[in-house]
Each structure stands twice: as C-alpha cells, then as structure tokens.
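Request: Mind sharing a record?
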Amino acid sequence: VQLQESGPFLVKPSQTLTLTCTVSGESIETKYYFWNWIRQSPGKGFEWMGAIAYSGSTYYSPSFNSRTTISRDNAKNTVYLQMNSLKPEDTAVYYCAADGRFGVSPHTSDYKYWGQGTQVTVSA
C-alpha cells in the first residue's frame, strides 16, 4: 500500500489549503481502514489532525475541527484535507497515514502505512 501526499508548497496567510492523499494498493473503502492526516510543525511537533473512515465518517482533533475538512473521492481512491484561514504557524510537513483501526497517534510510525509527507509553507 502506498500513500502519496501532494499539494501547494507555498500558501498565503488567510488562504485555504487543499492537500491530496493518493492511495494505491488498497481501496479507501476497505473495512475497517481509517485514513488520517498528521502534521509536523516546527512549533508543535507532530499533531494528529483527523481521519476519514472506510465508511466515510470523519473524525477531527478539537485543535483543528473548526477549520478543517477531510473528504474523499472513492472513484479516485483519494483522500483530501482542506484547511481554511491558514496562519504562518500552519507551516508544516503534512502526512497521510492509514491503519485498519482507529487511532489518534500523532506519530506516523504508529500506523501501518504512511506517506513521505508534503511540505506546506504559509507566508506572505
């Protein structure tokens, strides 16, 4: 199973970020997988942001719930992260990670599969 994150490298403050996690080798609808977004920032280290389940249900960390949306496109076998009102402190490496059980670990190594991450810099 491979996960590949992609998205813009540079985003301006207050803009909306959309990241893509393209999955190969496993269907994102496979029971009982959860597809997570995690980030690593210079200020806060690793943070679990949220997840979308095989069923389509979504779960969010309280820290991100108000401005984050996780969605998916089953036909493309792709998971998305959308975050609005970006701030410079949102500068981070964003990872997609997956496992066959629900978890909120901020560490990608605690998941069965994870991508290499994509750098996002928020700056004017």
Remarks:
- The CA atoms of residues 22 and 76 lie 8 Å apart.
- The mean pLDDT is 97.
